[in-house]
Here is the input.
Amino acid sequence: MHSRRYASPDRPGCLGVFDSNVPRYFTDRERTDFELFLDALPGPYLVLVDEAGAVVACGGYAIRPEAGVADLCWGMVHGQRHGNGLGRILTELRIEEAAADPSVHTLELNTSQLTTGFYERLGFEITKVTPDAYGPGMDRCDMCRLVDQDGDGDGAGR
Here is the structure.
């Protein structure tokens, strides 16, 4: 397993990862949004690739330096690869890269209620919940975490 920057030949693999998570984690109507995102990336986008060269996870981040924020965006693991630590690897890579930017003080993301526990284990806290924002029964949960500047792993230190 290795990580690298997204390139246009990864598009079918990333769309396959997305499709493998419908309808559990994404709705069909979000696919177009994801395709448009891939066409105009707002920042670095990473892929995790297995030994055979298949994309098994993808996710990125976008930095808003004027706000001191890095937004984690469109992170996902192929549905058949859940529970193998790939989501944690991908998220930690994105956090590490975004935190290396000295303008970044806070990490933000939005996700459904189905994955908030995963992000809470990585130090994120829910700041807002919007019921049914992604579709019926799929709430939008905004989350944030401070960047760990002192290296002790607690997400604090500025």
